[in-house]
Amino acid sequence: QLEESGGGLVQAGASLSLTCVVSRSVFHITHMGWYRQVPGKQRELVAESITGTEPTYADFAKGRFTISRDNAKYTTYLQMNNLRPDDTAVYYCSAVQAGLRYWGQGTQVTVSS
To answer: How many CB atoms lie within 10 A of CB 63?
Structure first.
């Protein structure tokens, strides 16, 4: 129901934009966000957009990443600038509807030094 795109391999300092399209079968979404995970570590929040509030960012994302939503297109975006090697991870799109959290399959982002 969630499909990410836009990952890839870039050099440090570059930018990437991730896109997540939500199936129209998931209505009344209250949260849309991005998480990331590296092997051996827990999945962590990158940024989340909650309806009616300002977006929430992890400390490492502040000033470099921007989350946005296009509700008419059931799409959320993550613009990532000034990427660093420690941003390397699988990035997952997430959506919350009626208290249930849904996940995409993830997209790999690799940042080389």
So the answer is: 10
Residue with tokens 């959506």: 95
pLDDT at 73: 85
Q: Give the E-state strand segments of the chain in sequence order.
A: 2-5, 8-11, 16-22, 29-37, 44-50, 56-57, 65-70, 75-80, 89-97, 100-103, 107-112
Q: How far is CA 70 from each of CA 37, 97, 105, rounded to the nearest angstrom?
A: 25, 16, 20
> Quick one: DSSP state of residue 26?
S
Average pLDDT value for residue range 90-105: 92
Distance CA 24, CA 34 (A): 19
Compute the distance between CA of residue 2 and CA of residue 24 in angstroms, rounded to an integer. 10
pLDDT at 87: 98
pLDDT value at position 57?
98
